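Weekly puzzle thread! Below is a chain. First person to post its structure in token form gets bragging rights.
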Amino acid sequence: MAKKQTTKKANVAPEIKATNEMVEVTIEKPKPKKPTWEIKDRIYYLLRQRKPLSYSIKSSNIHWFDEEKGYERELKYTSNQRTPFVDEMIGDQRLEHIVFRNGYLMVPKEKTVLQKLLSLYHPHKDVLFYEYKAEEVAKTEIDVLENEIEALIAAKNMDIDMAEAIMRAEVGSEVSSMSSKELKRDLLVFAKKNPHLFLELAADENVQLRNFGIKAAELGIIKLSGDQRYFMWGSNDRKLMTVPFDEHPYSALAAWFKTDEGMDIYANIEKRLK
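Winning reply:
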């Protein structure tokens, strides 16, 4: 007899039906890590460049508010404990003094407890003393140098009219007797000594208008009243404009020159200056 052939059924993958349903996947954001403490030597300076032979700051009976715990914790610096927190100390507590010599205190990396007390928790941090941070000092010095370079480049490329306007704001009517070389020299010196103020004046859209007004007053075309409350024509004392309260007269005049009435007066003065 012939044997019946048995046929094996092929494994068929289950049918997956497409749906329009959105599957929401929640990805947990990693929790921010607490900053790690860098093991290194640290140096602390008294503020205001004070340099007494010795200066002690409090090493006990001081407190720090712990935001995580929600209450103040007492601090103490000891020679035999591994923490500055009194509530974490075990056994005898040998109090140590914290003394600055000649205005500074060098704390080696081995004294981590003292470093953390001074850098993180002490209530007089940035009040009586500060931690010297070379990187932050370098960043500040770079900002100052870049500001100075920017001011010097701007001064070098500045036209003579703008240079005169800025220097008049700085030294007043002396500018009128300066040669162009003297003016350029003093402009560069000013930019180097006070780059921030120089750049502010260079960006001030009214500085040239203010200079224009001062020149007109120096030549007697216009004049400022004795009480500095209004400007008038120099020839007939006819009033031109009133200086608003608490404003610098020539700054107010410069702003007024940009009004409809002021523009007409500006054009009139400009003709007389020529």
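Puzzle host: Confirmed. Bonus trivia for everyone else. The beta strands are 42-46, 54-57, 62-66, 71-75, 98-101, 104-107, 129-131, 222-224, 230-233, 239-242.
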